[in-house]
Design brief:
heterodimer, A: 363 residues, alpha+beta, Rossmann fold, 2 domains, five-stranded antiparallel β-sheet, B: 576 residues, mainly alpha, MetI-like fold, 23 helices, 0% strand, P-loop_NTPase (chain A), ATP hydrolysis activity (chain A), ABC transporter ATP-binding protein (chain A), ABC-type transporter activity (chain A), ABC_SmlMolc_Importer (chain A)
């Protein structure tokens, strides 16, 4: 950073404590608590209408809060009776629509936040030039935003964020308007941006792969409530509830008579639990497809060994590097598995489950 | 017959059916466009004919007359000043109502839009009742100036003030549209960049919406330029003539003998107005930045402790520009004669009894106007659906041409259209030998030409919103073109069609400018009646008629507001 001449960002930690937001009768965010460390890249993830954008707008100060507190490095930004206006929060935001002012050139757009902070003359131009260089748009300084492509506009919006050295950068579904190819490039820019600036980033998205790829930590939200808060690996390997397990990654949920929520199941326990009578199988267990081994059942040995399950191939989808199989277990449950060859539809296979993860039921 | 042949045959006949309906609709379209253009073309020919006579030609005579240039200057002065007043009032209301959290927004909008719908002669009359030595309101509260002191409104500035109030809603609408399409994110991005509320106004909102404001100003200028009622009621008594009143006065004094000169004068003012329209459309196009993002509701600026003060200011302005003059009008209608103060003993409903009870000119005018407006609304509703339907299927460029053609009679000042209609129908119609000049029929035809676009626009907007697959599905189900029009399209656009008809009725029933030149004894309209009563010194009776007119306008507007949820955006001018 020092050789770039940009000030070292004063990135700060955010503490969100039991924040509640009601719109009339409806509760958009319900007693949400999060602690975000300085310099962390955090994603708010959830289906549309889960309150994640409302949460982001409360952080920015565009919405007041009904209950709880938001603190930035021990300074109270918002509570039931205090509200620091957005312009005094020293934050920056990338909007889904980029929100570039159409009557200003690219350089004016980027320079606006530092101009408001009183920077003038050579120092101002130097700062704008550097911010544009960071997003590789220095050649476009005098263009109008209407003359840029979607990806370029997005990078101008990013440059405008980093020029003023904000404590927190907020991003509201910044990739939603871009095509798939451009998304991959922009994901890279965001990661790069985070590494270079070390800013605290809060990123709202409904796309779980985007969140997994970018964030240090993810807050999964549903109906205004925080369902799980953890690193991407934790969310994938140890989802708390059945709903999170279904929302993140692929996998199958089976009923077994073994284990307790929040515990791993080894292969043998899992198989025993699956073979129990139906009334005793009450615990939901998540089995990821990479933990399933498939071997062709020979016609003569129709009954597999006690460590294997018999299953019928119901559906086969070609995914390039592998085939995705839908299998029907004797219990009637379906199982998603990967395999390197395509078995015939309707054929019998032997299935070996290597591990599972026990889930809490949904409220 | 083989099934294949059978199918071919059926297909063939269907095809013929389809082309027949297209042919019918197309001829309707062409006929309407020709009829819309005919008066303007006739005017152009009349004004430019006899140019060969050199200095004797009417155009040259008009252009070399001092009174023409004086009236032109008066027109430009009053309209320009009126435009400035309209821009101040309109932008104050547009900014406050659209962007801040003032109280009672929908009532403020309704009351601010009301002056645009109240006929200008009623506005002028009500303000005349508010000021001056004979004002019953001032008499009643003992504030009337001594007899013989001048009426302050009989002046250029008085005309400009009322023109400004009448056209302020136009500025309000143009600016409000451009503010509503200002994405909320642009304001939020500025605020999170560190801009205070005042800086957001100066740096973002004003620059982005500037073209909308200027376009609104241009519209206010054009509308003031063509206004007849206000300069007629306030200017003629003071000998202060603008172009429309000059034409009216000449026609009133000299009749059809000066038609050629009047055509030349009309051409002058018509060109001025059309140039204004072109400028305004250009600016409207430029004001569209192609803004992305969530438009709709713009950011609410929280006024905090200022909220009550701002609300009170807006209400105060409305009290001055709307409530006070209307109150003066009502008081004037309740006194036995001008100059008598209103109190428990003098209050009387005689004027109303006279208007409603006596079967004189008053009743006849009301009758004429209701019939004219009602039948114009019905005929235009019948024409609008097939017209808009055919228009929808034209290529983009042609659609623009046709819409401009039917817009011309509405965009031209009413006086110009009236002169054009006189020119077109002053001689009996050939072949059938029917004379329209001097009959209600001429006013009716002028109304059809003038208000067609008012009815077509909401229907076209509604049709444009329809998913084309709705009609395609009906077509696949076996419905022919007429059947589709009747059973699929009509029910879906019916609210817009009805709103269009109501708007036509609202505008036509109060119309003065066109009928001021086209009326004749026995064929007065409501607008002419108020004007004539006031000119004849019967201010009390004129006030009573005006009060009834305002009540009718307000209730029609409320009816339209009730329809609003079922209409496409922008059909009802005072709702968004």
């Amino acid at each position: 950073m020092a050789e770039l001449g940009m000030a070292v960002p004063s990135s700060a930690g955010l503490s969100i404590d039991r924040v509640t937001k009601r719109f009339g009768e409806q509760t958009a965010v319900d007693a949400l608590s999060l602690t975000i460390n300085p310099g962390e890249f955090v994603a708010l993830l959830g289906p549309s209408g889960c309150g994640k954008t409302t949460m982001l707008r409360m952080l920015a100060g565009f919405e007041t809060i009904n209950d709880g507190t938001i603190q930035l490095a021990n300074r109270t930004l918002a509570s039931a009776d205090t509200h620091v206006p957005p312009e005094q929060r020293n934050m920056a935001m990338v909007f889904q629509s980029y929100a570039l002012w159409p009557h200003m050139s690219v350089a004016d757009n980027v320079g606006y936040p530092v101009k408001l902070r009183g920077l003038r003359g050579a120092a101002y131009h130097h700062r704008v030039q550097q911010a544009l260089a960071l997003v590789e748009l220095d050649a476009y300084a005098d263009r109008m935003p209407q003359a840029l492509s979607g990806g370029q506009r997005q990078r101008v919006a990013l440059a405008r964020c980093l020029v003023s050295d904000p404590s927190v950068v907020l991003l509201d579904e910044p990739l939603a308007n871009l095509d798939r190819h451009l998304r991959a490039t922009m994901e890279h820019s965001f990661r790069d941006f985070h590494q270079r600036t070390g800013a605290t980033l809060v990123y709202v998205t409904h796309d779980q792969t985007e969140a997994m790829a970018l964030a240090d930590k993810i807050a999964v939200m549903k109906a205004g409530k925080l369902v799980q808060w953890g690193a991407p690996e934790t969310l994938y390997r140890q989802p708390r509830t059945a709903w999170v397990a279904g929302f993140i990654g692929q996998g199958s949920q089976l009923k077994v008579a073994a284990g307790h929520p929040g515990k791993h199941l080894e292969s043998a326990t899992l198989m025993r639990g699956l073979n129990a009578i139906e009334s005793e199988r009450t615990q939901s267990v998540l089995v990821r497809p990479e933990h399933i081994q498939i071997s062709a059942a020979t016609a003569s040995s129709a009954t597999p060994t006690h460590n294997q399950l018999a299953a019928q191939v119901e559906n086969v989808i070609f995914r390039g590097e592998r085939y995705e199989l839908t299998l029907r277990l004797p219990s009637g449950e379906t199982l998603l598995a990967y395999h390197h060859t395509a078995p015939d539809l309707g054929s019998q296979v032997a299935v070996d489950l290597q591990q599972g993860w026990c889930l809490e039921p949904d409220q | 017959m083989t099934p294949a042949l059978n199918y071919d045959n059926k297909y063939g006949s269907d095809n013929k059916y389809g082309s027949q309906h297209r042919w019918l609709l197309s001829s309707l379209l062409i006929a309407i466009v020709m009829l819309s253009l005919a008066p303007s073309l006739r005017l152009l020919i009349e004004a430019l004919s006899d140019l060969a006579q050199g200095r004797q030609s009417p155009l040259w005579q008009v252009l070399s007359s001092a009174s023409t240039w004086r009236a032109l200057w008066h027109s430009l002065y009053t309209s320009g000043l009126g435009m400035l007043i309209a821009m101040v009032l309109g932008s104050l209301f547009a900014f406050a109502i659209t962007l801040t959290n003032v109280r009672g927004k929908s009532w403020l909008v309704f009351c601010f839009m009301l002056p645009m719908m109240i006929p200008p002669q009623v506005t002028a009359l009500s303000w005349l009742q508010l000021f001056g030595p004979a004002s019953p309101l001032l008499k009643s509260i003992g504030l009337a100036p001594p007899l013989g002191s001048p009426q302050p409104l009989y002046s250029a500035e008085g005309i400009a003030l009322l023109l400004g109030i009448q056209s302020a809603p136009l500025v309000f609408l143009a600016l409000r549209t451009s503010l509503l399409s200002l994405p909320r994110e642009l304001i939020e991005a500025a605020r999170i960049s560190g801009a205070k509320q005042t800086q957001v106004w100066g740096h973002i909102i004003l620059p982005v919406t500037r073209s909308g404001l200027i376009a609104g100003g241009a519209m206010a200028f054009i509308s003031s330029l063509g206004n007849f009622g206000i300069p007629a009621m306030l200017g003629i008594p003071a000998g202060y003539y603008v172009l429309p009143t000059l034409i009216y006065q000449r026609m009133a004094n000299f009749g059809t003998g000066v038609l050629a000169e009047m055509a030349a004068l009309s051409l002058l003012i018509g060109l001025l107005a059309l140039a204004g329209v072109a400028l305004q459309q250009q600016l409207m196009n430029r004001s569209r930045f192609g803004l992305g993002g969530h438009s709709g509701r713009s950011h609410d600026f929280t006024l905090g402790s200022w909220r009550s003060l701002v609300t009170a200011t807006l209400v105060g302005i409305l009290l001055i520009i709307l409530v006070a003059p209307l109150l003066a009008l009502i008081i004037s209608s309740l006194v036995p004669a001008m100059g008598v103060p209103l109190n428990a003993e003098t209050a009387t409903l005689n004027a109303y009894a006279e208007v409603v009870g006596r079967q004189g000119a008053t009743w006849r005018a009301v009758n004429n106007s209701l019939w004219l407006a009602g039948s114009a609304a019905v005929v235009l509703m019948l024409l609008s659906l097939p017209l808009a339907y055919r228009l929808q299927r034209l290529p983009e460029r042609w659609r623009g041409v046709v819409l401009s053609a039917i817009e011309i009679p509405y965009a031209l000042p009413g006086v110009v259209l009236a002169i054009a209609c006189i020119l077109l129908f002053v001689r009996p119609l050939p072949i059938i030998n029917v004379a329209l000049y001097g009959t209600l029929g001429l006013i009716f035809i002028a109304y059809l030409a003038r208000f067609l676009v008012v009815c077509v626009k909401p229907v076209a907007a509604s049709l444009a919103q329809l998913d084309p697959s709705l009609e395609e599905a009906a077509q696949l189900a076996g419905a022919g073109p007429w059947r589709r029009l009747g059973s699929i399209i009509l029910p879906l656009v019916a609210p817009a069609l009805f709103a269009g008809g109501l708007l036509v009725f609202l505008l036509a029933v109060n119309e003065l400018t066109v009928s001021a030149l086209l009326w004749s004894a026995g064929n007065e309209t409501l607008g002419v009646l108020i004007f004539n009563l006031d000119e004849g010194g019967e201010s009390v009776l004129a006030s009573a008629v005006s009060v009834l007119v305002v009540v009718m306008v307000a209730s029609l507007m409320l009816t339209l507001s009730l329809l609003a949820p079922r209409l496409p955006k922008g059909v009802i001018p005072w709702q968004s």
